[in-house]
Design brief:
By secondary structure, the chain is an alpha+beta fold. The chain has eight helices and 14 strands. The strands form three sheets. Strands 1, 5, 6, 9, 10, 11, 12, 13 and 14 form a nine-stranded mixed sheet that branches.
Length: 307
Amino acid sequence: MSPSWTRARHADRAPFLAARVAIVRALRDWFHAEGFTEVEPQALAFSPGAEVHVDAFESGGRYLHTSPEFAMKKLLAAGEEKIFFLGKCWRRGETGPLHAEEFTMLEWYRADAPYERVMEDCVKLARVAARAANASALRWRERSCDPFVEAERLTVREALVRYFPLPERGGGALSHDAFGAAITRIEPHLGHPTLTLLYEYPISEAALARRCAHDSGVAERFELYACGVELANGFGELVDPVEQRARLVEAMEEKQKRYGYRWPIDEDFLAALAHMPPASGVALGLDRLVMLASGARHIHDVLWTQP
């Protein structure tokens, strides 16, 4: 394949890049109309997050952020109420048709809002992107998704029963590895012919989300799917610093066990949680959304430059 800077290759990608420009403009317009403030948290962080299976780039004892989540929650503690970020994040080793080590994240938070509100945001933003790209449907390979009809809402337990029947019916009954295998089997069924909001994840799979009031074994975590592709991951945010510390320690112990290293605990983040209002937030992969709205074949089609 010719380098991305050749005129022929760039011309081949031009329609997808034009769709990206239109979608980014439309998304920013939507957030501004909703009264959000765009923020620019620093990219170098003391700790890059809580994810067990994500690897980060380290520089001088600090990390390129895998998400601006900790920094944005500190801004909520400082008094911000509706904020969004549209910018670069980094995750080492993530490559493939839907993954890039350097990618663009759209992340937003609403103070004093239930997580059902940001679920609704996700559906609206998928429609905004489709309209901006003049697309009647989102598409990935052989699947299509109509974002303009009502989204399917499916709990993790319901999805397990429907698509991965086992004697252990509840999501909380599965081990971490078994749950990961189950989700891999379930994902191809989600997000077509309409968007799917998969919600109420087991606590063990939601280190930064608060417990559901009706069932302490599951958390206020959801993911948005289109065409079998995960587009967004959102939470009703955990703001109890004691429980959050315990969850982070547990996640880092699992990381140490599996990969032989752990990330430091961000004490400044935990201190800020004591002052953070109840809130809900979402991280959405901008590149993936552009891909599905524009009909791109690979994530490289929608990135302006590649290494």
